[in-house]
Amino acid sequence: MTFMQKVERFRRALWTWRQPLTRRPSAPAVPISDLFVWRNSSEWTTNFELIDIPGLFSDGERGLSKHVTLLLFDQRGRQFLKKKMELLPGRRQTINLAAFLSETNGEMGTFAVFHSSSPPELEPIGSFLAERGYVSYRYRDAPLRAYVHGNLDAIAQGPDGELQLLGGRSFLSREYSLQHELQPGVVYELGMVNPTPTAQRCICKSISVHSGKIIGVQVVNLVPGGIQLVPIRADKSEPVRLVIQSHLVMARPLVFRIQNLKLDVFHG
Amino acid sequence: MSYYPILKAPGASGWTTLCNFPPNNWEVRHRGDQWVNVTWLSEGRWLTESLGTLAVGGMRTVTDQELAGRVPADALALLSLTRAPPPAQSDTLPKLDTPLTTTPAWRATLGLATDAAQTSYQGELDPFPPQGTLLTFGPFLQFGVGLENHLILLNVENSAVSRSSELEIFDAGGLGLKGKFKVRNNAANLIPLDGLDLGPEDLPLFICRGMAAIPLYFSQTSDGAFLSLEHTHPPGSLVVHGKRWEAQKLLKNRWFAKVTP
Predict the structure, then answer these.
(1) Which pLDDT tens digit goes with each residue over A56-114?
(2) What are the backbone dihedrals phi and psi of residue A21, each rounded to the nearest 5 degrees, phi first?
(3) Which of A232, A259, B59, B164 supports an S-S bond with A188, CB 3.0-4.6 Å?
(4) Of A140, A165, A190, which closes a domain?
(5) What is the pTM of this model?
């Protein structure tokens, strides 16, 4: 290995050593879930596609039970609902979360879906069952819902129901650049979730695509397990891009894009 | 670095926005202007043309209309960013000379648009090995008057030799075969999902035993006023940590044996 290769390896280690994107749960064979974002108001409804994931690995002949525990959290990460839901093998259940939400819960929060059993095949290979499934949002009275997949292995549920946030933290402040052009006159809202067990401060910088200059800065403070919706409005005359500075290993937001009352939603 | 396709779907036009900046500030050290290229398959060869340069920190949107006349309508247009222009012709897909990132991958915004709406996701496309296969469960079908659902099956391979395989669609619960479609490599295969006798509680299972692909689901109202686009996970994404590829293999072996075409 050359000297420069050693320097590069050391430099990379500063960013990766003991800074995993997702930490391993402290208990074996426990289920993991995304912290999915829910929105609920006169304008928003949220649906989740419930699938029997353990049943995809085996038919249940070994006594795998068939239910999930749905946990709903408010904006500050406080659990306010726990609901057991039966799974239908090989079927899809579109769960409208409005059935479990009221005005007192606020207009946004997160939810987790924990499967009651883990396929025994996973433990020998060191893997954990992860619910990172599919959420759809309906904006106003649109005839079509907009889908987005989960990608944040955020939280585990231990054998006694205890919850463990799994998001990794970085020693160094790092930047996440959204590879999307924010266009003038379009409404953007970033769903930013903190999957770590400590409070996080995120600095969202709007940067002119043309000049490269910072034209707006917003500071977002996130409690553990908490979520904030951050409105971003591009300048009226020029497109911008977004950089998020934080100690999150990967501060990728959920992006809601609304133009002419039409919704597009995607993960950063 | 990856390729970035321009998508195709009925009644909608494809567009892709490239970004000449990495998704984070710690994986890539070299930064500079890059060439924007388009690569497509023509008569058994990969052809590439450069579309100019993109300044560091810049973004550029390329539309299917912009490429009309350059890239045949039935070919998959693959955009790329490179430090030097790739060869104009080659038998294998040009290897790109630009850096990789993993947390996350260096992506583009891939979208579809009508006059009234647009939909997009953050994505990239890397060549699949020819021995690859596809298994995925797709609960994205939407039902209602005037709603249309399509699967866009994206494949690219290094080889310029055309080949085809068969996509099988099953109901994962009853295991009934709902449809069989011929799909091509190096293409965005468009599969209509309506009229397959799949209901709102059916979990569609998509299998391709001879080709790997990215499965995208595009739904729209018949007037194009509302759109939705998203991909489903490969089976390995149903688990985290450990030997995820073993979980993927386990699921593929199980389901490939469980359902017969």
Answers:
(1) 998 765 555 589 999 999 999 999 999 999 999 999 999 999 999 999 999 999 999 99
(2) -65, -45
(3) A232
(4) A165
(5) 0.96
Is A175 part of the contact surface with chain B (CB cutoff 8 Å)?
yes
For residues B141 and B206, membership in a common domain is answered with: yes
Q: Read off the tokens for A185.
A: 């006159």
Domain ends where: B73, B98, B123? Answer: B123
When CB atoms are compared, the residue of A92, A153, A209 closest to B59 is: A209
Range of the domain at A49: 32-165
Asked if B61 has any chain A CB less than 8 Å from its own CB, the reply is yes
Comparing C-alpha atoms, which of A226, A79, A108, A229 is closest to residue A167? A226
Same domain, B118 and B9: yes
Q: Are residues B172 and B115 located together in one domain of the fold?
A: no
For B104, the closest chain A residue by CA position comes to A250
Asked if A267 has any chain B CB less than 8 Å from its own CB, the reply is yes
B51 touches chain A (CB under 8 A): no
Nearest-by-Cβ selection for A264 from B118, B172, B174: B118
**Amino acid (one-letter) located at A170:** S
Residue A47 is assigned to a structural domain of this protein: yes
Domains identified in chain A, total number = 2
Put simply, whether B63 touches A (Cβ < 8 Å) is: no
Flag if A250 and B250 touch (Cβ within 8 Å). Answer: no
Question: CA-to-CA distance for A81 and A100, rounded, in angstroms?
Answer: 8
Contact B96/B18 with Cβ under 8 angstroms? Answer: no
**B206 in a domain, yes or no?**
yes
Tell me how far CA of residue B185 lies from CA of B95, B207, B229, in angstroms. 18, 15, 21
Domain that holds residue B43: 4-123
Question: How far apart are the CA of B5 and the nearest CA of chain A, in angstroms?
Answer: 15
* Mode of pairing for the β-strands spanning B118-123 and B164-171: unpaired
Candidates A49, A142, A252; nearest CB to B104: A252
User: Do residue A197 and residue A131 come from a single domain?
Assistant: no
- Helix, coil or strand: residue B74: coil
What digits encode the pLDDT tens for the residues B84-140? 999 999 999 999 988 889 999 999 999 999 999 999 999 999 999 999 999 999 999
Rounded-to-integer distance, Cα A112 and Cα B174, Å: 28
Nearest chain A Cα distance for residue B116, angstroms:
8
CATH of the domain at B208: 2.60.290
Distance CA A265, CA B228 (A): 8
Q: Which of B104, B123, B142 is the last residue of a domain?
A: B123
DSSP B112-140: EE-SS-EEEEEE-B-PPPTT--EEEE-TT
How far is residue A45's CA from residue A143's CA, in Å, rounded to a whole number?
12
Same structural domain, A197 and A136 = no
